[in-house]
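Pasting as-is:
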Amino acid sequence: MRVAIIHYWLVGMRGGEKVLEALCNIYPCADIYTHVYDIAAISDVIRKHKVHTTFIDGLPYSKKMYKKYLPLMPMALEQIDLNEYDLVISSESGPAKGVIPTSTAVHVCYCHSPMRYIWNMYNRYYDSSGLMTRLMMPPLAHYLRTWDVATANRVDDFAANSATVAQRIKSYYRRDAEVIHPPVDTAAFRPVAASELGDYHLMVGELVGYKRPDLAVEAFNRMKAKLLVIGGGEMLDHLRKIAGPTVTILGPQPFDVLKHHYARCKALIFPGEEDFGIVPVEAMASGRPVIAFGRGGATETVVRDRTGVFFGTQTVEALIDAVERLERIDFDPADAVARAGEFRTEIFMEKFKSFVVRSTASRAQVGVA
């Protein structure tokens, strides 16, 4: 089949781009379409494919300010010519699924989440925006929601990266979605001997408000316990200002440093609500337990009281209680490694290929009827 993959933007290698890499390996001859393409920030696996951009890529400062052009992205998607493709795969988190395939093509959407900034996190984004953005957001979000719901009908079948996201798809689009957890390169991580374990907890991720890194810092300040924080983002400077003497904000780090600390921390702290959350799986693949907020994707990966513990409210007190509870659990690193193995890349690839085969067969049966 002639295959086109639509990915919202290519400006770095995060979870969505790791999914795109796996799709590239499944469909090595596929063409990729995206709004913005920063070739220097993208992996060799993706660069091997022919990448087309929309007109957004040619706008001023698009590689850094692409989100400012969000209102133009629906128009840009609808201008993509997909006439020569039999299978269209949209990778949706920013606008991607709103393309217009031919009437004979199969269009499947792998949804990381319906656009957070107009749906479940709209109020958080609104509250943290400047005055001019707050004035513009209500009418623009209304327009984008209307377009987003309408374009759900251009998709033959949805796959969601978690049950959490499948529920959002059901709520916002009134469509069912098959849950296919995203690929995690679990083979890249290894446990270490107990004698090599450190005396610190670890938090990893982009330092932005909804991930609640401030909660982790405040809890470990109060406990006077050691915490390492790895990641960059808009809250980096603020966290360095509020960090006490037992909290070390390392900022962005290379993979080898990340892997080293995954394997040697007492436990991973995961205080935000994520769509899926690859970080807890990477920690478990390193043989370490997870202390996570009990909502979102972490509830689908971490096994309660076996590979980690949950806390029910995003408060300092609840997080401290969870840290103390984990110390009373007889944790076996082998259980964590085995659980992480259930999310390895090969499993994603097999499930996604089967999903496409079923979607294609279903579409063919409808055509025959």
